[in-house]
Design goal:
The protein is an alpha+beta fold. The protein has two domains: about 190 residues, D-Maltodextrin-Binding Protein, domain 2 (3-Layer(aba) Sandwich); about 120 residues, Periplasmic binding protein-like II (D-Maltodextrin-Binding Protein, domain 2), CATH 3.40.190. The chain has 14 helices and twelve strands. β1, α3 and β2 form a beta-alpha-beta unit. α1 packs across α5, α3 packs across α10 and α6 packs across α7. The longest helix is centred in the first third of the chain and has 18 residues. It is globular and about 60 Å long.
């Protein structure tokens, strides 16, 4: 199990250390010969890293890049195991695991002059010494043939007609925790008081078909007809829709929830200059415009990229998404081991 303990002072010390211990010195002394080693989340995100971001990086630097599929916790484990000579240069983490990486001194600041496209990303999206590449949108994933009319509220998951047909993601995933916080707030709770969410989860148990640990596992469950309605990411729904699947994502009346995908430079990377250049390519307006269309339908963070096409059916623009960043991970992360244990005991019952 990943250790999620963190406090604000530890995070601040980690941030100040990364900023003052000499990124400029590393740039000057590192060879930056490459090849660059980067991570991406599995599925469409990894595909886009290989086919869109990596070619843009090669065009500007002439260097090659090796993309590895990795969960956030796996990336942290890899760089933790070899801090003096890390096997990765750029890691993509969600915002809660980015807090952990910062607290442990595993990542370093991205210099603005080495990643100028980052200046067009709102300050709120510069988090944990990294820069947010895209948003993960959380909503109601459902089978369009079996669930009619379309769901409109998180409360629909508790409808008795879906007994044994619902899937949620556990708190092992940031998706599961962000959703729990949403449920708690909708029922009068908060990050400091998750009891309304626990009560709701206990009431949901009869409707649950399964509780996969990874969001991507929802795809085969939905395709095989084992699940009709679930809590899911748009990034797993859209590729399935593109293949003709009977699936869609509905916005709950309580509002979308979001998790951030944030790019970081690994501390002690032998290629810090190239790492910054790769992150700059991730934020390039042309690259983000491509990623916002099919098949990825990712939400751009560069303010120069307008929201258009399919993604506007979900969100009007970055200002709307910025208003959805409501989970205070500095409060949630210290609780996370206890949340996982209680969830496994009371909800998974295993």
């Amino acid at each position: 199990m990943t250790e999620f303990l963190i406090d604000r002072r530890t995070m601040l010390r980690a941030g100040l250390t990364a900023l003052t211990t000499g990124f400029a010195t590393r740039i000057a002394t590192a060879k930056d010969e490459g090849p660059l080693a980067v991570t991406a989340f599995s599925g469409i995100t990894e595909e886009m890293a290989r086919t869109v971001i990596a070619p843009a990086f090669r065009q500007t630097t002439g260097k090659t890049v090796n993309v590895t599929s990795s969960l956030a916790v796996e990336a942290i484990a890899k760089v933790s195991a070899s801090r003096a000579n890390p096997p990765l240069d750029v890691i993509v983490l969600d915002d809660p695991t980015g807090l952990i990486a910062a607290s442990r001194g595993l990542i370093q600041a991205i210099p603005a002059d080495k990643a100028p496209n980052g200046q067009d990303v709102p300050a709120k999206l510069h988090v944990n010494l990294g820069i947010t590449q895209t948003f993960q949108l959380i909503g109601l994933m459902y089978n369009t043939k079996r669930v009619q009319p379309a769901p409109t509220s998180w409360d629909d998951l508790w409808n008795p007609k879906y007994r044994g047909r619902v899937a949620i993601i556990g708190p092992d995933s940031s998706l599961g925790v962000a959703w729990m916080v949403s449920i708690a707030k909708a029922r009068g709770g908060s990050e400091d008081d998750l009891e309304p969410a626990w009560k709701a989860l206990n009431e949901l148990v009869p409707n649950l078909a399964t509780i996969p640990r990874a969001p991507g596992s929802l795809v085969p469950l939905m395709e095989q007809g084992q699940v009709d309605i679930a809590v899911g990411y748009l990034s797993i729904v859209q590729p399935l829709r593109m293949r003709g699947g009977d699936v869609a994502l509905a916005k709950p009346t309580q509002g979308w929830s979001v998790v951030l995908n944030v790019a970081h430079i690994v501390d002690n990377s032998p290629n810090p200059g190239l790492a910054a250049a790769y992150i700059n390519a991730m934020m390039d307006p042309t690259v983000q415009t491509k990623l916002s269309g099919p098949p990825a339908f990712q939400f751009p963070t560069n303010g120069k990229v307008p929201y258009q096409g399919e993604i506007r059916n979900y969100v009007s623009g970055p200002d709307e998404l910025l208003g959805m960043i409501t989970t205070d991970w500095t409060k949630i992360n210290p609780q996370r081991p206890a949340i996982i244990d209680r969830f496994n005991r009371d909800v998974r019952k295993g």
